[in-house]
Amino acid sequence: MSTVEMVALTDVVEILDRFRVPVSAKQRQLRVGAVPYYGATGQAGWIDEPIFDEPLVLLGEDAVPFLDPSAPKAYPIDGPSWVNNHAHVLRALPGKVDRAFLVHSLNVADYRGLVNGTTRLKLTQASMKELRIPLPPLAEQRCIVARLAEIGNATTRGAYALGQATTLTEQLRQSVLFRAFDGPSDTTIGEVGEVFVGATPSRADPALWDGTVPWVSSGEVAFDRIGSTREGISESALRNASRRIHPVGTVLVAMIGEGRTRGQAAILDIPAAHNQNCASIRLDRDRMLPEYLFYWFMARYDENRGGGAGSQQPALNGKLVKSLRIPCPPLTVQAAVVADIGAWFTRVEALAGNIENTRTLVRALDAASRYRALRTPAVP
Q: Which residues pair with 122 in a beta bridge?
């Protein structure tokens, strides 16, 4: 099968980087207007006057995933615009290259060996000039662009279907939890266990830190089992070790935390202390199983988050945690509930894994299809 001729990027574009004008964020705040202000990956704001006023192609100079073949690196702009120095500005030469074809070519180009940097890859103008892109005849370029639009539409439909499937798996997870705890709430947490609030040793005293006692922060309480912690404290930081170091099987709940932390629960698989943003619940094992309470917190997550009290941010507290009402069936029933939820969650996780694998495959197929379309002559 024949392939398309490869040419230097500089044969088909004029580079307009010399017209870019850097402007600081502070200066831009004083110049807000109706003109789009563009950066490496898209529009980054508005400004009061344009530098350019024509159809152009912008190619990221830095902060762009150059080595990800499925990620965009270039995009078209039209009309009045201001471009900062994080994007290269290209004018497609009329009669040489179709602008949409140019964007597609730059998005699937091989940037290996051209970009430098470790955490923030950069494509200098000198390296960009070494880029080579496919260049079939102009009419064929437009046929390829139309073909790529069809591929894009199919990919979009596939991504939407996968998004819907992801939503359905989460709905299935929630329905399993709802069904498990739809009985009457006949007791409180305080009646089936002791509730403790943790503490944070002084950061000003190094002797209290980097010790052998695992110490849990609220950010580590994330609907999971805790087998290790990011930090440890010394035994001298504990005024009463028997009441501060909680045994395996203790259920933790985050009372305060950023984002979605508040209201999440965890089970200790190691003895550990924790900070004041968490409550620990040592259950009477003759009354309630830790896993049962853990799943109940998962089922009641949204409700428990809404029941907080505090002046600085919505929060739970030890008293509220003790007063939370919960169903308390016999232990045999609790064990059956835990087993049923675990079995269903295993199925849901398998479904979610298959969906994510399919999403990765769709992205890879999309990138491969675009690459092939750009390098294979169009068949009339």
A: 62, 116
Handedness of CA 316, 319, 325, 326 (dihedral sign): positive
Where does residue 334 rank: exposed (0-12), middle (13-18), buried (19+ CB within 10 A)? buried
Instruction: Count Cβ atoms below 10 Å from residue 344 Cβ, excluding itself.
Output: 17
- pTM over 0.85? The answer is no
- What's the farthest any 2 CA atoms get from each other in the chain? 82
Angle, CA of 47, 39 and 69, to the nearest 5°: 155
Q: Which of 343, 280, 303, 342 is nearest to 185 (CA)?
A: 303
What CATH number does domain 6-135 carry, 3.30.450.150, 3.90.220.20, 3.40.50.720, 3.40.50.300? 3.90.220.20
> For residue 271, is pLDDT > 80?
yes
Asked whether the domain spanning 188-325 has the same topology as the one spanning 6-135, the reply is yes
Q: In the numeric block, which tokens belong to residue 157?
A: 């439909």
- The residues that bridge with 272 in the sheet, in sequence order, are 246
Mean pLDDT for 136-147 is: 89
Q: What is the pLDDT of residues 33-83, one digit of tens each?
A: 999 999 999 999 999 999 999 999 999 999 899 998 888 999 999 999 999
Neighbours of 52 (CB within 10 A): 21
**What is 188-325's CATH number, 3.40.50.10490, 3.90.220.20, 3.40.50.1780, 3.40.50.1000?**
3.90.220.20
pLDDT tens string 234-249 = 988 887 665 689 999 9
Instruction: Work out the pLDDT band at 265, boundaries 50, 70, 90.
Output: very high
Q: Where are the domains of the chain?
A: 6-135, 137-184+327-380, 188-325
What distance in Å separates the CA atoms of residue 217 and residue 257, rounded to the nearest whole number?
Answer: 9
Phi-psi region of 117 (alpha: psi -120 to 50; beta: other; left: phi over 0): left
Q: In what order do the strands lie in the sheet with 87-92?
A: 13-15, 87-92, 56-60, 74-77
